[in-house]
Design brief:
Blueprint: H1 26-31, H2 34-59, H3 71-95, E1 98-102, E2 107-118, E3 129-142, E4 144-161, E5 168-170, E6 175-177, E7 183-186, E8 190-192, E9 196-198, E10 201-203, E11 205-216, E12 231-233, H4 241-244, E13 245-249, E14 257-263, H5 266-289, E15 296-307, E16 311-316, E17 319-334, H6 335-343, H7 345-349, E18 356-357, E19 365-368, E20 382-394, H8 398-405, H9 410-418, E21 430-434, E22 448-451
Parallel strand pairs: 1-22
Antiparallel strand pairs: 1-21, 2-20, 3-17, 4-11, 4-13, 4-14, 5-8, 6-7, 6-12, 7-11, 9-10, 12-13, 15-17, 16-17, 18-20, 19-20
Length: 455
């Protein structure tokens, strides 16, 4: 029986089964001697081994070439995109940047203690000015009905002469008539100066005198708040003098009455009148303080007041009405001028032409020392005792600086601020720009904020 050849697995990891084998005629092999058969098998095995080695040498893997890093272009692309985005962001950051300037004003403290004489203000000199309010209030008190009485209204007028350059005498009793048809008479004889010419303008001569109503009655009473036309001299009617001589109210015309008056206790009337006057003054002052013009200051103890005589009227058989009229003069000071008046020109000069502010000057204690003699109507001087302290602070032109800062570099803003060194404390002032890498102030002024802290 022929010998079976076992599978051989060579070192190349290939099986002999994979090698094609020639078909051999078994019958012939069986007839051959064993030695020849051995030799043939050995020869075939060597041939096949040789072929196998050739094939294996072809199939030996060649060294692989190193692949290029496929991630490198992607990384470079990402880096490029980041750089582009960063560049765009940097450009837009300058467009959307914000700048905040904290500008601390220069401050000069001022202490005041003393008594000052302050005149009424004029167009060329510092002084006080006034605001005037008039009102009336009424209350009731117990009373009894008195006897029938009549009184004539009296008051003062200013008589004008625009008719002649020569003086004109008007005798006592001369009658003048109001637009209402009511007639009054001059109490005294007066001489009215002639008119004067100022260029082509005629300036009438004038004189103040008193008049009295021709008849009794409250209809002759005229208040300064009433609308009253010029009073004409009846004696001149129908002549050129009728328009050349005329009179205007110089005060209220009061006291006219016809009828029964209520009888009240004098002491009760006095105390009631004083209380009504006090309340009326407080009311008028409160209204004044709510209407102080910008840039002015008013002090509660600096004012003057005048009162009309109380008017007693009948309410019923047991009650009388007491009516009181008051006029209050509030005294105003322009803050800037008042500060210079108190601090002196040497203190205010350091702020140069740019100027200064004073926001706390209203904290001073200001008391009138000539209350009984002070009369704004007569333009008398104010005598004031002033104590306390206030500050002068540089006036920083915010709008002008915003315009100057717009689009400037940080170094340029420093140069701009030096021009305002007289009003700005440069050492304690600062600037902040966001984002921080932007070195230029935004062009858009709406993105520039200037903060002026109060010290």
């Amino acid at each position: 029986m022929p010998r079976r050849v076992q599978d051989i697995i060579p070192a190349s990891r290939r099986s002999i089964r994979e090698i094609p084998v020639k078909k051999i005629n078994i019958e012939v092999i069986e007839e051959r001697p064993k030695e020849e058969l051995k030799k043939n098998v050995q020869d075939n095995t060597e041939k096949e081994s040789y072929k196998r080695n050739i094939e294996d040498s072809k199939n030996i893997e060649k060294p692989r070439k190193k692949k290029k890093n496929s991630k490198l272009p992607f990384v470079l692309a990402v880096i490029g995109i980041v750089i582009i985005i960063a560049g765009i962001a940097f450009g837009f950051s300058g467009h959307f940047a914000k700048a905040t300037f904290i500008l601390v004003p220069k401050v000069v403290p001022v202490s005041v203690s003393g008594t000052y004489i302050i005149p009424m203000a004029s167009s060329t000199a510092f002084g006080y000015s006034t605001v005037t309010l008039t009102d009336k209030a009424t209350t009731t008190i117990p009373a009894t009905i008195g006897s029938y009485t009549e009184t004539k209204a009296q008051g003062s007028v200013t008589v004008y002469n625009s008719y002649s350059a020569q003086s004109q005498k008007l005798v006592a009793g001369s009658r003048i008539v109001a637009g209402s048809g009511l007639v009054y008479r001059l109490n005294n004889s007066v001489v009215v100066p002639g008119y004067k010419l100022s260029g082509k303008i005629t300036v009438p001569g004038s004189v103040v005198t008193t008049i009295v109503a021709e008849k009794a009655g409250d209809q002759y009473n005229i208040s300064g708040n009433d609308s009253v036309s010029d009073l004409k001299f009846i004696t001149y009617k129908g002549t050129a003098k009728y328009d050349g001589f005329y009179a205007r109210l110089a005060g209220n015309i009061t006291g006219g009455f016809a009828g029964t008056k209520m009888v009240v206790s004098p002491s009760l009337l006095a105390s009631t009148t004083a209380q009504v006057q006090s309340n009326l003054v407080k009311t008028l002052q409160s209204r004044m303080f709510n209407t102080i013009p910008a840039g002015f200051v008013m002090y509660p103890n600096i004012f003057a007041s005048t009162f009309a005589n109380p008017v007693v009227t009948t309410v019923d058989s047991k009650t009388a009405g007491v009516s009181v009229s008051a006029t209050v003069y509030g005294v105003l000071f322009k803050k800037i001028d008042f500060a210079k008046f108190l601090a002196g020109s040497s203190s205010t000069a350091m702020f140069g032409t740019i100027g200064y502010n004073t926001n706390d000057i209203d904290s001073l204690s200001v008391i009138m020392a000539n209350q009984s003699d002070f009369s704004p109507a007569k333009k008398t001087n104010l005598l004031a005792r002033i104590n306390g302290s206030f500050t002068l602070s540089g006036s920083i032109p915010v709008t002008t600086l915003q315009q100057s800062f717009a689009g400037s570099s940080i170094s340029k803003t420093a140069e701009i601020l030096k021009k305002y060194a007289s009003v700005i404390d440069l050492v304690h002032s600062s600037v902040e720009i966001n984002p921080p890498w932007v070195s230029t102030v935004p062009v858009d002024q709406n993105r520039i904020t200037i903060v002026v802290p109060n010290k």
